Fold this protein.
Amino acid sequence: MKKVFLFLSTMMLFISAQAQQTAQKCKHSCCQQKTACQQDNNRQNCCQQSKAGKIETVVAKEFANRIMGKKVVLIDVRTPKEYASGHIKGAMNMEWGNGFKEQFEKAGIKTNKTLALYCRGGRRSKAAADLLVQMGYKVVNLDGGIVAWEKAGMPVEK
């Protein structure tokens, strides 16, 4: 019985390792499909094409250039409490979660606008970006969220 259990455990570990190895062709959070990552040597850009729109995940300095240099709509998808604790100047707060799509549609933002999204660490903004590209928007996502923004010495306001 112990040998059977040991054999099954070993097989499960092997299968799990194989699945992880296959899924890790691209380790970057910007990739919807694990094989669709493109990045330059300095990890400045990691782009994901979608049928409806485009997601670009960029580091803090590039994100700062994007929100300063062009007409973009800056959106913080964290909770109102997180937003109040410090946010990027000019960001509107639209919490990711239940009702996000409806809240976003109510804001009346045209699909020809580029959206710049961020959250605390990058997960929520990536999920929101996935939805928004399906709705036809071009999205720039902050890699590492506001944590990376602050770590890069960029300003926040309260």
Q: What stands out?
A: Residues 2-23 form the longest helix (22 residues). The chain is about 40% helix and 20% strand. The mean pLDDT is 78.
